Amino acid sequence: MFGGKRYVNSVTGLQAINILRFVTFLIISVVFTKIGLSKEQIGLFEVSIFIASASSFFWVNGLIQAFLPLFKSSNTFGDKEQLAGTKSPEVFNIYVILVFFSVIVFLFGLAIKGNFSIFGYSGNVPLLNITLLYLLLSSPANLVEYIYMVQDKNGNTISYGYITSILQLCAAIIPVSLGYDVIWSLRGLVVVSIIKNIWLITLLYNYSEVKFSFPFIKEVMFFAAPITFSILVSGSAQYIDGLVVTINYAADGFAIFRYGAKELPFVVMMAAGLSSALLTQFSKKENIRETLGVLRKKSLRIMHSMYPLSIVLLLFAKPLYRWMFSPEFTRSADVFVIYLLAIVSRILFPHTILIGLKKTRTLFRISVIEVILNITLSLWLVNGYGVVGVALATVITYVISKIILILYNYINLGFKPNEYIPLKWYVFYSTILITIFVLLDRGIIIIG
Question: Is residue 240 predicted with pLDDT exceeding 50?
Fold first, then answer.
């Protein structure tokens, strides 16, 4: 699927494992509808995954993105060229931080679960205990693929992705296929998370130096704080939307929303993989222009593959949803086609430059502007377009936020947009995508 280990680099390795992760949960979603699992049961499973993700996405990503530039260049351990196979104290200390935050969030969840309310349940929310356990175990396990990346073991990332994806599929699908309650699917995912942590411990044994360093932890935390807040603010839109749905709808309504409120996942996964993989390259100031060229080249590859796919999905979203899931989930397609437009912002990477150059405070300030703009647009567009308007507001906000970042990089840092953005191809593909969307919305093109 991804061409063999010898062709895998740090970018494709992370992109591949992110895609595998999405495909795994997509297959789980499809199977749940095909075997006749009720929308209520699907909704409970989806909200459990949603809670675990909403409670961890910002600090897990923030800490790891802070760790990557510091792996080769930190005030604590100095600038150095880490050789593959070298045991690193940086790896051990980021693991300590991730475990610490996982335990804190887990204990906080236990403390407030008696006051937790969702889907009309209050104080006795179904699956909450198993959700917290899944959160506790799955969060540190995210470090595995990044250890492989910094150790230049990218081929192993693919093997890890395939094995764990197969395990997750079996763990989630087999119990409900045998007639058991959906809680057994979550218990299966917890077991897989335990296996992932065992895998992680073996990597720590091989590649980390057990050397606790409070100065390095302090450095990571200082660097990670604005990144974490930036991710929390910029990524909060979809989670706020989800929380609103859980308050106003039952579990079956949440299932309909979740199946539609998805960007084209391959874009998100490939963009995130590219951004994370290039962060370590900004540690060498003399090679920044070269790194920008790599960013431009690799983002163009994403455009050539993902824009055509987005256009095809835009055209056939409704019949595709009916075929993949069931007629009950056709309504989800209306939300999905809006989120497909998010590719216009996702394949732009001005934020990668700011994180790589450790200008995270600027990123945080712009993220605050982004969330204020998103709330304002959502309140305005929801009156005329309902939930679809909220989705449209989010997409518009993403684009405006990237424009602000691009202008900052040009005005304050001197990086021209065409140094890291293939502008001609970007305008060409975006124009086609938006034109087709408008024609579909006006009913000039009708498919399905």
Answer: yes
Domain ranges of the chain: 1-235, 262-442
Joined together, the tokens standing for residue 137 give 């175990």
pTM, whole model, 2 decimals? 0.68
* pLDDT at position 1: 45
Q: CA–CA separation, 148 vs 387, rounded Å?
A: 41
